[in-house]
Amino acid sequence: MGAHPSGDAEVLDGRDPPQTLGSWLTEHPACLGPKVCEAFGGRLPFLFKVLSVRTALSIQAHPNKELAAKLHAQFPQHYPDTNHKPEMAIALTPFEGLCGFRPVEEIAAFLRAVPELRVLVGEVAAEQLERSASHDPRGVSAALRVCFTCLMKSEKETFSQQLSLLVERISQQAAKGQDTSASNGDLLLRLHAQFPGDIGCFSIYFLNVVRLEPGEAMFLAANEPHAYLQGDCVECMACSDNTVRAGLTPKFIDVLTLCEMLNYTPAPSSSKIFPAVQSPLDPCVFIYDPPVPDFTLMRIEIPSSIKLYLISALDSASILLVIQGTAMGTSTAAASEMTLRRGSVIFISANESISMHLSSSEGMLLFRACCLL
What we know:
Its cofactor is Zn(2+). Keywords: Isomerase, Metal-binding, Zinc. Isomerase that catalyzes the interconversion of fructose-6-P and mannose-6-P and has a critical role in the supply of D-mannose derivatives required for many eukaryotic glycosylation reactions. The active site is at 245. The chain folds into three domains: 47-99 and 210-255, Jelly Rolls (Sandwich); 103-205, Phosphomannose Isomerase, domain 2 (Orthogonal Bundle), CATH 1.10.441.10; 277-370, Sandwich (Jelly Rolls), CATH 2.60.120.10. Helix content is 28%, strand content 28%. The strands form five sheets. Strands 3, 5, 6, 7, 8, 9 and 11 form a seven-stranded antiparallel beta sheet that branches. A six-stranded antiparallel beta sheet has the order 12-13-14-21-16-19, with no helix packed on it. A four-stranded antiparallel beta sheet has the order 15-20-17-18, with no helix packed on it. By secondary structure, the protein is α+β, with helices and mostly antiparallel strands. The chain is elongated and about 70 Å long. Strand 13 and strand 14 (296-302) form a beta hairpin.
């Protein structure tokens, strides 16, 4: 849902053929709002998505603007634009992902408990990381970079052999009813079943496993390693398609770029959960406002006791998605009433509001993507 050239949304206004949102905004740039129009050159600055993840999505990171421009110039077939791609995922169901590097003590514990991992990282790099954890906090990021890069650059024959040994060992332990949590056994076997022989299976020993309940979010800044493992979410990001991948994927892999660009600052998994703030103006609205200008997300929960509700005007264009409930919507900008139900997607121009007459007994859940400058 957005106006990126590789996935430009269609405006359902009865035209044949339908007009894309991007071309419609070119004709009506004022609908973006003056601040957004000026800041982003007359373009909608965000992309809005719904993801349903059953098979893990790749180990990846997104470049900052400087790196994006460089990658696009060198490899336009793999990096199709010059923009950065910070993004946020908000869980619709219990959701699981990998995000950021674990505290170094956790990684060191895996290096001791998983000999197959230690073989790939190498004894020198493993010992350097263990030393930095206890004696050299300033050297932690450098030691972590060396360890992760050694792992990701392992020869295919070597990592395939070590992964087979690890999977066999954990499978045997699990079959005997033994606890495999010290080796993160359950997750390893699940990922290996989805991507057999993939180096990305070892990333679970370096990256935090983050579990979100519905309504909880995680924000992924530039250079933050991550992967979505399972669950449904809404996702918003800057308007870009630049992704650097290194595992758990059949797509183009760029290990060298990924290892060079990553943020190697370790942090606990709890720090990766991004808080929503209840709006002081409307108790139904919860705002997720990341530290980037391109987008803000709102979760709108309307209880069943409310039958009339106003989607308030903003000085930014926005996209509204209905997750639950039904209503009739009216707006001065719309020629007729709109039926809003699960799956409805509405583009709202800047400074326009929508009046909703709710018709469902369950209340409504909506998400709204916008750009609050």
